Amino acid sequence: MTRSIAKDLAALMMIPGLSGHEDRVRRHIATELDAMGVDSRVDTLGNLIATFPGSADAPSVMVFAHMDQLGFFVRKIENDGLIRVERMGGVPERALASQAVLLCVENGEDVPGLIANKAHHATTPDEKYHVLKAPEIAIDTGHGSKQAVMAAGIGIGTPVVYRPQVIELAGQCIAGPSIDDRAGCAVLLDMARRLKDRADGATVHLVFSVQEEFNLRGAMTAARALAPDIAIQIDLMLATDTPDMADRGEMSLGGGPGMSHYSFHGRGTLNGVIPHPAARRLIRAAADRVQVPLQHSAQVGVLTDLSYVQQLGEGVICVDVGFPMRYSHSSLEMCDLRDLEALSQLLASALEIVPGFDLSRDGVGA
Questions:
Q1: Residue 36 to residues 45, 153, 186, 190, 212: CA-CA distances in angstroms?
Q2: Gyration radius of the chain over CA positions
Q3: Tens-digit pLDDT profile for residues 196-205
Q4: Which residue among 22, 212, 213, 341 is the active-site one?
Q5: How far apart are CA 92 and CA 215, in angstroms?
Q6: 3-class secondary-structure state, position 161
Q7: Is residue 297 part of a domain?
Q8: How many Cα atoms occupy the beta-carbon half-sphere of 273 within 13 Å?
Q9: Angle subtended at Cα 41 by Cα 38 and Cα 47, rounded to the nearest 5 degrees
C-alpha cells in the first residue's frame, strides 16, 4: 500500500495549487478517482467530494484533507522586470531568500523564478542578519523588463508557489513543498481504494477541500451541505523529534499516525479544536484493532478548518488525525511514508462503524 501512497503523493506534490487555484490538483484527483471507478462531484468553491453510501442507520462521516498550498500573489511588476508579491498563508519570511519559485500562468506554461538575495560580497554587517519582510522581497524571472514579464503571461494576481519538487530521503522519508496537505490527499485516495468495494458500514464522504491556507474556508462549505454526524480532518502533526522542537511534545517521524487532543491558534484567530470524546474513543479503538501505534498531540499555534466544521448545525463530532511532519510551511517539508500507510489503515478501521455506535459524550471510555 505504501507504493500507491508514495506514487500519489509524489504526483500531487508536483502540481501547483495555491489557495483559490487548486483546479489542477482537483482535476488530477478526479481523474484518479474516475480510473478506480469512483464518482466525484465539485461544489461551487471547488471542493471535490466522493460519497460512499452506507447503512441508513449508521452515522455519516466526512473525512477531509485540503488540496491547496501556501505561497504568494503578484501585486506589482517593476519596470526592470522584478516582481513584488503579497504573502498568502503562513509563509515563514526567514526562509524565503534565494528560494526557487514557480509563477503559475493561466495557459499552464508556468514561469520559473527565484526570490532575489543580495550578493553576499555587497552586504553590510547589519544586512547579514536582517530578514526581509514579504512585501520587501523581489522575484527575478530573468526577463529583464515589465513588458517581457507580462508577455510571459504574468500579471497582477498571478499565483506563486515554491518550485515543486520531490526529494527521496533515507528509509521511507520524503521531502518537498506542499506535503501539507498533499500527503493527506494521498491518504484520501488510498481510502477511496479501500472503500469502493466494501459492502456496508457508515456513509463516508471523502472531501478534498480548498482554501484551507486562506482562512480555513472550503471544508466548512462542504460540511454544511453534507451535514455529517462525524468529521475527521487529516493534516500534519508537528513532529517534535528535532532539537528545536523537543520541548513541544512527543511526536516522532516514523512513529505512527497522531491524534490531536487540543489545538489552539493563539495568534489572531482565536479558534481551535478540543475533540469530542466519542471521536477519541473511535480513533483509539481503531488503533487497537489494527495494532497501529497512535501518537498524541496538544499544541498551541496549530489551526485547521475543523475548528469551524465542529460548530455547524447543532454541532459535529470532530477529531483531527494526521501524520508527523518536520519543517512545516517551509519550502522543504518532510514526512515518513510509513506514517501515511499506518494512517490509512487506522482510518479504514475507524470507518467500520456499525449501527448503534455510541456517539454520546458519556459513552464507555469517555
A1: 25, 36, 14, 11, 27
A2: 21
A3: 988 778 899 9
A4: 212
A5: 17
A6: strand
A7: yes
A8: 29
A9: 115
Confidence of residue 210 (pLDDT cuts 50, 70, 90): very high
Task: Give the residue numbers spanning the domain of 55.
Answer: 2-69+177-350
3-state SS assignment for residue 146: helix
- Which grid cell is 228? 455529517
Would you report the helix, strand and coil content of the chain in percent, each value rounded to 5? 30, 25, 45
Could you report the per-residue pLDDT of 147-180, keeping only the tens digit for each? 999 999 999 999 999 999 999 999 999 999 999 9
**pTM given for the model:** 0.95
Residue 98 cell numbers, joined: 534565494
Opening angle at CA 23, ends 19 and 29, nearest 5: 110
Q: Which residues contact 264 (CB under 8 A, 6 or more apart)?
A: 270, 271, 272, 299, 300, 301, 302, 303
Alpha helix positions (H), the chain: 2-13, 23-35, 146-151, 179-195, 218-226, 277-290, 306-309, 337-350
Residue 176 is which amino acid? G
Measured between alpha carbons, how far is 337 from 253 in angstroms, rounded to an integer? 10
Dihedral over Cα of 268, 222, 207, 315: its sign: positive
The H or E element containing residue 366 is: none
Cell of 134: 514579504
Separation between Cα atoms, residue 145 and residue 209, nearest integer Å: 38
* Location of C-alpha cell 512527543: 250
Which of 110-124 are b and which e, b meaning 16 or more Cβ less than 10 Å from the residue's Cβ?
bbebbbeeeeeeeee
Same domain (yes/no): 61, 206: yes
Domain at 43, CATH number: 3.40.630.10
User: Based on the domain organization, do 190 and 331 belong to the same domain?
Assistant: yes
Name residues whose C-beta falls within 8 Å of residue 67's C-beta, 6 or more positions apart in sequence.
17, 22, 25, 26, 29, 48, 181, 182, 185, 208, 209, 210
Q: Which of 89, 65, 71, 62 is nearest to 8 (CA)?
A: 65
CA 304 – CA 322 distance, rounded (Å): 11
> Which residue is listed with cell 456513509?
203
Choose one of 135, 162, 189: the last residue of a domain. 162
250 in catalytic set: no
Rounded distance, CA 107 to CA 153, Å?
8
